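Protein Entry — a single chain follows
Next Lines — sequence and tokenised fold
***
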Amino acid sequence: MPLPQRSAPLGHSLTRIVCWSQQLATELLAPGDTAVDLTAGKGRDTLALAEAVGHSGRIVAFDVQAEALSQSSLLLTEKGHVVYPWQVGRKVS
């Protein structure tokens, strides 16, 4: 059986998924809530979560790359959010 044709390129589909997930988070979260971002990356999703929970809420963001945490911190600070110091964890053997 042949695979179905995609109506849009994969990149376009992933963009829609990211927008949808951010919209869902803003609908589910309220000011004062706590949310976790397990892949902080460049901070775009972290920012969406921070906007949803407001200044009375809290976001805990993780990433395996220190550079990703730095970029997330910079973006959040530029957008007026308080960023507390972060640290790189130790490898567990």
